[in-house]
Amino acid sequence: MTDNCNTFSTIVAEAVSGSHVIKIAGYSRIKVLLRNGESLTSIPFSVAGHSWTIRFYPNGDSAESQDYLSFYLILDSANSYDVKVIFSFELLGKNGRSVSSYSFTTDLRTFSYKGSLWGYNKCDIKVFKEIYSQETKGVHSKFVEVPPSNLHQHLGNLLDSMDGSDVVFEVGEERFSAHRCVLAARSSVFKAELLGTMKEKADGAIQVDDMEPGVFKSLLHFIYTDTLDTMAQEDQSRDEASEEEDLVMAQHLLVAADRYNVERLKLICEEKLCESIDSSMVATSLALAEQHNCNGLKEACFEFLASPSNLLEMMASDGYDHLKTSCPAVLKELTTRFLPPETKASEEITIGLYN
């Protein structure tokens, strides 16, 4: 009798698939920033227990591919060997679906060890989005473009039209209409004056003394729009006279902003003056800094006056006499910080400071 021993085995070819979506914004900027041979790499992602990355060359990986894009799939697992893969690169349209004319599928490739890569070095594709890689949960088409806030424009139009205005200010020979609630929301001083215990009882115009109409107009414009209608942005076509007018306006607006506690406007004016210190303006700016508690402007003036030549030029400027009479403590501090009495030069300058 013969014993029959039959055995069986099954060969299973198991395949695991996965995908990773890369979004790259600002493709045109990337092509300018990265030269031929320079690349971006995605964050690692896992498929079939192996770690992978995708390397992208926006201007090609070599001289022969410099007019194309290059894409490579890279095995990133340290303990993975001879991994056989069929993979594809696909461009996704706005609907999130693959664009067939820009899809590339490989034959079977073997990734022998960590760092092995396969891909395409000549892909003529001109879309993609972002200069950094980040993990995303899906591709979302953008059907709605939200415009930037235009609240400041609407409030500016409200100021210009005077619709619903309920308060009038008289500044010099000019009158300005405004809205109590807007002013109160932007300035604690206006809030107390218009809505609080200091509220004006009379129906007539509120008198504003010691301020030019143009300055008050700019103050109102900033309160409504958070922007300046004066002090124009830097422009090479602007002459020195225009720049000087901007600086004078910045000085007056700083005083107005401090008076009505509009802190952001005060800081904008202080920054403008810090950036424009010269021998003709430094005395006036230093006096403003002392009188209106602008520590940054004060330090900027002191830094400028650390130079003896700048100090001497300031002493010859129109604003120096006002500085001496209004802020003598500042001159004393200036002498203490920068003029050691043992040097002859400093003695001469010190005498000039107090004469």
Describe the structure in your own words.
With 355 residues, the chain is an alpha+beta fold. Helices cover 38% and strands 16% of the residues. Among the domains are: 27-123, Apoptosis, Tumor Necrosis Factor Receptor Associated Protein 2, Chain A, CATH 2.60.210; 277-355, Serine Threonine Protein Phosphatase 5, Tetratricopeptide repeat. The protein has helices at residues 27-33, 151-161, 180-186, 188-194, 213-225, 240-259, 263-274, 282-291, 295-305, 308-315, 320-326, 328-338, 344-354, and strands spanning 40-41, 45-47, 50-57, 69-75, 83-85, 88-92, 98-105, 109-111, 117-123, 167-171, 174-178, 206-207. The strands form 4 sheets. Strands 1, 2, 3, 4 and 9 form a 5-stranded antiparallel sheet that branches. A hairpin with a 5-residue loop joins strand 6 and strand 7. Helix 6 runs antiparallel to helix 7. The protein starts with 26 loop residues before the first helix and ends with a helix. Residues 122-133 and 232-237 have low confidence and may be disordered.
Please describe the structure with a list of short key phrases separated by commas or semicolons.
single chain, 355 residues, alpha+beta, Serine Threonine Protein Phosphatase 5, Tetratricopeptide repeat, five-stranded antiparallel β-sheet, three-stranded mixed β-sheet, 38% helix, BACK_BPM_SPOP
Helix-strand layout with pairing:
Blueprint: H1 27-33, E1 40-41, E2 45-47, E3 50-57, E4 69-75, E5 83-85, E6 88-92, E7 98-105, E8 109-111, E9 117-123, H2 151-161, E10 167-171, E11 174-178, H3 180-186, H4 188-194, E12 206-207, H5 213-225, H6 240-259, H7 263-274, H8 282-291, H9 295-305, H10 308-315, H11 320-326, H12 328-338, H13 344-354
Parallel strand pairs: 10-12
Antiparallel strand pairs: 1-3, 2-3, 3-4, 4-9, 5-8, 6-7, 10-11
Helix pairs in contact: 2-5, 3-4, 5-6, 6-7, 7-9, 8-9, 8-11, 10-13
